[in-house]
Amino acid sequence: TISHSQGPSSPLCVQHVRHYGGTGVRTEFNDKPDSLFFNDGVRRIDFILAYEDEDKKDFEKRHTFQRRKVASLMKMGMELEAIQSVIDEKLLFVKVHMPWDVLCTYAEVLHIKLPIQPNDLSSRPSRWRFLSCITKHFYPNEELITKETEFFTAPFEKDRLEYFYVRDKDVFFTASMRSRMAYYILSRAPYEIRGNIKKFGITKLLDRGVYKAAYPLHDSRFNVESKEEGCPNERFLLYKEWAHPKSFYKMQPLNLIRKYYGEKIGIYFAWLGFYTIMLALAAVVGLGCFIYGYRTQDTSTWSKEVCDPEIGGKIVMCPQCDKECKYWRLNSTCEASKKLCIFDNFGTLVFAVFMSIWVTLFLEFWKRYQAELEYTWDTVEFLEQEQSPRPEYEAKCIYERKNPITGVKIPYYKMNLPTLEPLKEYVTPQMATSVTASLISFVVIMILNTLYERVAIWITDFELPRTRTDYENSLTLKMFLFQFVNYYSSCFYIAFAKGKAVGYPGDPVYLLGKYRNEECDPGGCLIELTTQLSIIMGGKAIWNNIQEVLLPWVKNLILRHCTRGPSEKVIPRWEQDYRLQSLSKLGLFYEYLEMVIQFGFVTLFVASFPLAPVLALVNNLFEIRVDAWKITTQFRRIVPEKAQDIGAWQPILQGIAILAVATNAMIIAFTSDMIPRLVYYWSFSVYPYGDHLNHTMQGYTNSSLSIFNINDFSNNSRPMKTPYNITTCRYRDFRYAPGHPKEYEYTIYYWHVIAAKMAFIIVLEHIVYFTKFILSYVIPDVPYAVKEQIKREKYLTQVVLHETNLKLVTKRLKPVNDGIVKFAEVNLTREEMELDF
């Protein structure tokens, strides 16, 4: 047990309160299960450590680590109090409190920005304020979540406390600031000294099992408002106005999210919400494009010709594989042809160009919005602190080197072998139909997803990054590249490889001289790509939401069932939180990855599937609330972390945006039939009509199919069954007919189409990239109003915090050698400083 170290009245005292059984819960926590304070009801709990007091083989070693850790925490100024679980006698909790002096010290160490005076710059009224009577219903209840006063802030300095806006010391540092500072100390408190190397950090003790958990407290139950004095009930408010399903239509209370969970969580939900709002515009345009295609499918000339019994019904198509495949009539693809017209029309081209512009607007406006958040959340000049080494890195360090910045010797790991990136292959299953193929592909993707995740983590662990940030950045790039190939490879194959190099029936192309190259579905490759995208996007969204909702809920349900005890009405706050799930070490990594993969589907292949933004929008409306519900109700409170932006995901999004222009241009050029139709319409379907030329699409179906003599089949590819009345068959290509001097060679039409496709790609890419460049240049990254506020804040910081230094300097200036040199007292006024500034 932990004993009294300096007497019960000492500020560094550790009080170990035991519960000796019985049916009722005694006054160990003042009969206030939702209390956030020590037993004295005065000192606030800033962090909780949990450990098991049990007799195991390594008990003595773990117990030694615990005592050393506690001693080091007390030396660093923390106040501790231990208490036994009301459910499990072996489980103990250590409450951690940060006294005022310690808070001030570490607020300065961490450069935490705190208020110096209220914001006196008048805010510009919204252009849409006349709609406030309507829009107010889409925002959280202002009576519950009140708008906080805006302040100008400055990095905290302990010696200039009087210049900061301190109304109440108990609330000057928010709960998230306090827990962040507490975790900073816990991460650096030593517990073992081995030679010249000092072992420190709570993370490694958690990995070793010395401590079972370390977490800050939720301030209340999520579904019951706490009546305790001093409890802000922010968790309850977040659940009611944000995480509850009935609030799905409301805007997110981002400032409260940031206040409760920290900037890193806040910036994720801000990005996800902004992305969802921008998706609404893309979804409306995409839905309009889909409706246009749906309404024109029956009036399409080429679709009519395919379905016409006198045209498509009399055209016999060649088999699409060797021996086993049969001849078939063109009108058998009537329904597929109509569906193709829904997605393969002029509206799709317009939508692809629109999405290329949309993605630029999304990224540029996100930069502006992110700049606003950086200022509002005090991360403009965010200085990332020197992070402690990861336990995995520290365990393998056998060398020391001098830190060029601090001059202190630090342990490091020398890697003797280069890191090798694994080769990745993806094999698409042979398909009977496009739907079955897409389902099989989705199952394969989900299986490979688990495999590639383990490989990426294994490679990153092998690299042994020193800090958590380095680890996450390294893993982010690897995981995205693996997922990129895993999720998109089948789509790239269908769009740009399948059916592109198949030869003709008399001379098919074989892979490795043995396997005949696969041809597209009779309805075309674009309809296959559309089917693939819809199934993968829809299946992935459904599967991820089921996992995110069911798994944490089932785990917590099992844990409650296995550890039956008193109800939550008598279980103390720290033990209620202990029974919740802990967030994984990678935190929001998988949430970002899921959304970035979706962003790729929405942008890279949108020319084949205009409904992709609609599906993404519906999914994200659920995703926001599911993530909110999960972290608010099923997980322990997350340790708040600073974050200035979305990190390594920003350049990945920019790379996807650039690639999307090329992929959509190539889909329209090589996967759809739009370019061959336009070439036929403007070049080969002209006939005189009065005094001018008329253009028509009549006859396109016949012109797009070449003729093949069935006697020219090779022995390897000749069908096993041939109808007696057939001498020729048709296939999709532009080749001369049998008997022509250039038999089976490409026609002039083919070269016209190729030239048109290349010209289309070059022109579209240049137009879109030029437009993207203009938009990026015209839209400033930081709004003008934010720039003004930043300048005002810098000025106030200079005046308020450094004016004292100037006065102290002037008082210390004394005459030197009376008759030789005299310094006049310098005392700059506030007006002079403002003029200089």
Give a quick set of tags describing it:
disordered N terminus; membrane; disordered C terminus; 5-stranded mixed β-sheet; two-stranded antiparallel sheet; glycoprotein; 49% helix; Anoct_dimer
Can you offer a commentary on this structure?
Keywords: Cell membrane, Glycoprotein, Membrane, Transmembrane, Transmembrane helix. The chain has 837 residues and is an alpha+beta fold. It has four domains: 14-243, no CATH class; 251-387 and 418-675, no CATH class; 388-417, no CATH class; 784-836, no CATH class. Helix content is 49%, strand content 10%. The strands form nine sheets. The protein has a five-stranded mixed β-sheet. A hairpin with a 6-residue loop joins strand 3 and strand 4 (91-97). The radius of gyration is 34 Å and the shape is elongated.
* Low-confidence segments: 1-27, 416-433, 814-837
The oligomerization state is single chain
| Strands in their spatial order, largest beta sheet | 1-3-4-2-9
Radius of gyration: 34 Å
GO cellular component, one term: plasma membrane
Protein name: Anoctamin
Domain Anoctamin transmembrane: 257-414, 431-793
Organism: Cyclopterus lumpus (Lumpsucker)
